[in-house]
Design goal:
alpha+beta; 4-stranded mixed β-sheet; elongated
Amino acid sequence: MAVRCSGIVISSLFYENVKSTGDQMGLLLGQVRRKVSDDISDININAKKEESTTYIYDFLPCNFCEKNCTVLKEKLEQLLDDKAQVNRPNLGNWKFYVLSS
């Protein structure tokens, strides 16, 4: 499985993390594409190979969890409804921890 993310998106994500003063979390938006290729050889008559590629198009910094890691469902649904007009489904979430000594 391959992951593709543009330099603009990854640098914006890093910038958001650097400028935050505390822990930060958010959603990754994009899509997963699957491609099946059929190779014909002397050994295998039908050798199908499936490749998955994850494309990350955008991120959404937000806080949809409380300190005890319980998900605030209403807030999460509201954030996803606001981004649904873009037609880019939610792929996952990310969390950035600030380590201090």
